[in-house]
Amino acid sequence: MKQIIVHQEKCTACRDCELACSFSHEGVFNPALSRIHVNDFYEEQFYLPMTCVHCAEAPCAIVCPTVAISKEPDGQILVHGERCIGCKMCLLACPFGVMGFHSQTGVAHNCDLCLHIPDGPQCVAFCVPKALEYTDVETAATAQQKIYAATIQKSLLAQAGQSAH
Amino acid sequence: MQAQYVLIGNSAATLAAIDSIRRYDQQGRVILINREQGPAYSRVALPYYIGGEMSLDDLLIRRYDDYQRQGVDLVDGATAIGIDAGAAEVVLADGRKVRYEKLLIGTGSACIAPSIRGLDTVTPHYLWTLDEAKSMKAAAKKAHTALIIGGGFTGMLVAEALRKLHVRLTIIEMTAQLLPQLLDAEAGTLFTQAVRDQGVMLRLGSRVEAVAPRNGQVEATLSNGATLAADMLVVAAGVRPNLSCVANGPCAVSTGILVDEHLSTDCTGIYTAGDVAEVKDFLSAGRTIHAIWPTAVDQGRVAGACMAGAKVVYPGSLGMNVVKLFKLTLAQLGRFREEPDDDVKLLSGGRDLYRKVVVDRDGVIVGAVYVGDENGVAEMGVIHGMIRRRTKWRDLARYHLPRLTYATLVHAAAHHG
User: Fold this and answer.
1) Which of A19, B121, B188, B334 is at a distance of 20 to 30 A from B282, taking alpha carbons?
2) What is the pLDDT, as a whole number, of residue A161?
3) Considering the domain B113-237, what is its CATH architecture?
4) Dist. CA A24–CA B129, nearest whole Å
5) CATH top-level class for B2-108+240-307?
6) Would you state the pLDDT for residue B311?
7) Which among B58, B375, B381 has the least Cβ separation from residue A99?
8) Inter-chain contact B384–A93, Cβ cutoff 8 Å?
9) Of B351, B342, B362, which Cα lies nearest the Cα of B403?
10) pLDDT at residue A26, as a whole number
11) What's the rounded Cα separation, in Å, for the pair B403 and B400?
């Protein structure tokens, strides 16, 4: 499976990804409707785009009470809007906070990797600094989590070291 | 009839268990004993069916094909009335017996019928099964007014559905606030106002003493002597574990069926999951029954795996809920009503009406409650993850953000570890 991988250090928070995503899915440039969001910490110039990581064991799909979220044979987690009742249990279940909700249609939405576009994810296509990459990953679903986890683990280990003194 | 795996119930817990069993064992025969008729429907979606937003077909979360594909024999219209642990058999109401090697009791909840004088002289509507939903919908189409006993989760969902059918409503709740299991007092006040603003009559802190038929309507007498009349009566006084198949043993039962960390009962080969199971509470040392869909699914997955021979441990149940009612999005996680040693962090920002995080004496995040629009629920997901990982508030305390995000955690780890 191909997956969107974030190279956090390359992100400049230009937010073109948000506009590209919104336009690709909604036909309008509205960051609020984007399925990828740039988190910014301007003081440290730390910018982190976040979108669905297509978990191997996806809590959103597991919890959905109307079976509106599927795990495709290739590993993509897709929301089927026509089955969604808008209960938002998937949003409550997603620990990454990347399941979105479309306030106009009243259904949940997540990154669908722009499967409807031959060129692939438009956020990647329009990312000038190449902070986003659409690539084959061996264990695609966990690659992104590993990046996040490694960052957290590094400092937690440091923290544990400090508190031991 | 006999099978390696026998499951009683056809909803969240048992369906998740089947998926889980099939991960470990593609061969073993599975029999599912279904009290109702046909493939599983989503109980959670019933209010949307009543309100006219979903068709009967939309409610289905399985098809006959799905059972066949998973090698499950669905036995419709069969009620389990007892379990003979010695013979390893489930006894059905029609006298048939189903022999099991591994049994999962997933009989869910039953509606509580409150002790109200005259309840047997009228036709109260409950909402648990599809048949009840159909009958409520049919009654609502003919009704101009309804009384709803109970302002909890089900009561309010029914209220929202009936409102869409233009039924005028009066809700009678015995506690001082609506949704006491979902909202703290302050959030409850905000919600109460929103409900009143939509023209719903509320009688909080009131109890119905008696009901009686009168001129084709139902008349309710409250504890203060006041009377209310309406075309239909809905009783939403809560649920309790449906223990009918274990009423005469063999399993140890308290409020629900007691389990160990693998969701096994004290009887060999018998497991339980969902609303009927009394399980470890994720936050305390005690036991609990949250009676919610996500918990039933989690438990079904664990029980199914264990039935198929895996040694999976259930981490404990965490209360969580989210719902949109009367134009407000409401969400709750864990211990949202603070206890004496807890600390409360109030977050504010944007269009949210109310955001509160509860932190225990060790600084660990244990609960949250949210009232606002749908944009705040993703943040509750992040907080849910934090509660599950027992994250400490001090890791986040420096952030004055419109929203806590997972990126906050990554940033905190990268810069302030």
Assistant:
1) B188
2) 44
3) 3-Layer(bba) Sandwich (3.50)
4) 41
5) alpha beta
6) 93
7) B381
8) yes
9) B351
10) 96
11) 8
